[in-house]
Amino acid sequence: MFRSIVGNNCLPDIPTAQLVCKRFCCCLPLLINPIAKSFTDQESPPDWQRALDEWAPWPQFKVEGLEELYSILEICYQLLGDQSKQKCFLYASLYPANSKIYTDYFVECCIAQGFLGVVNAATKYSATRSRGINVILRHLVNAAFLEEGDQMRYIKMNDLHRQLASHISSKFSDSECKTYVDNEEHDEAFRSASWQNARWVSMVGSKRDSLPINQNYESLQTLLLQKNPELVQISSDYFGSMGNLLVLNLYGTNIRELPSLSGLTSLKVFYINGCSELKICSHEIQPLKHLEVFDIRGSGVNFVPCLKSLRCLRTSYITSGNYDEISKLCKLEELTIEVQFPWQWCDDAENIIQQVASLKNLTTFKCNFPFPKITLEQVLEKTSIGWVKALMECTPTPQVGVYGLSPTEAWKMFQGIVTARLASITLVAKISDIFLMHYALTFEGLAMRSGSLSKSTKVIGKPLLTVLHQAAVSGTEIALTPLQISRIFLLPWAFGKFVLLHVAIQSVNEGSNRFSCSFVPQSATNSH
Prior knowledge:
It is built from 16 helices and 17 strands. With 528 residues, the protein is α/β, with parallel strands linked by helices. It has three domains: 2-156, no CATH class; 178-218 and 225-301, Alpha-Beta Horseshoe (Leucine-rich repeat, LRR (right-handed beta-alpha superhelix)), CATH 3.80.10.10; 427-524, no CATH class. Strands 4-5-6-7-8-9-10-11-12-13 form a ten-stranded parallel β-sheet, sandwiched between helices. A four-stranded mixed β-sheet has the order 15-16-14-17, covered by helices on one side. The chain starts with a helix and ends in a 12-residue tail after the last strand. The relative contact order is 0.05.
């Protein structure tokens, strides 16, 4: 098993490989996988020998407990070598075991903590994010510290490795990676003392309705409070001593108002998405001078935050939003807009997209429609597609999301809508040219359109001239496909005693493809 994981090309020689397996995996087959994956990164025989020399043989297990197991697994941790990888591993232990940790959010937190190096004006945020996911997290997955989900859309940490991370963090009381993960069994005194000493605090899904009070939290850098629906209130001065806080996550809580944010002078990442009860005013967020990532989707925020430090913004489309402010976000690199109100969006979209296109540093633009394809198609059938064309032509090329479709399928759907609509408009133009030049019809005031009508008759299985005559006599509108319309123009240009006198394209409604043509008989005019 050890050989199959490492691969024969990586084995320096069989005796050394056997020694590694015997020394570090003895009596515990569970350790073969993580140990083998850790040694795959040792690229040459000297590297393997160095690891063997550095880590002395471990005694046989003679006592119950996990101390020896953790000690052996810690070898794999040390073999990571890179502090960025080690810190990202420890940071992942803030989330419940086997829960989905979405990589975009996780890497944003790691960037704020400085695990991935300095991100400044010369560094593209997307490049740093990509390195975090495709290099750091990928390595941790390959080394069996994390588990991959949905092509790295999320990761998981199993219970064993989570306990290992907690064990490592607990050994270093003064470590910058000192953590506190809330547990329902912890009493208030223990929670308060642990919070005060920790750099990273996690209450993810802890079902608490209150937070420790009267503490000094100057050392705190990460505070994860998400998925606590019972949390509805935080005291007004709670963040006053959190001047070093870098990451604050309130996702999925039911807080109705924010405490004063004036103390959060270092905050870089702030999540209030899903806080549907939360109402805030624009002046409340002005103290956040260093905020880089802000997610306000699904919250009660009804304005575009004008924070010039922002590099990543996720917002819901708001019908009364101040979208002219978007163009002022000069450092913005990533923008996501979630459209909850499609009808109103169609009215504002062209202006919003124009503002987005003016952002010089934007590298990623996502436009999400969290409802089924059929709903979006129904909206687009009855509205202008000007905004759709603007979206398709926007730079950078937007990533379109539609519920139930992959990004590729969603993009193709929008392309198909634009192509079909433009083809219909082109057909109308060609129709007018052909009529004016050559063709005749006998039916005055016949209205035609390619969509369905409440008082329309489908042209199926009947001679086309018969249907047209009946429609003209009865005054009924008919539904014609582009193919059927084209057949009309292939009819003999002179039939009966009528020829075309005048064709007026009276109206073209871009939303419904409606047009009408007026005809008069030959007797009323000179012949053509």
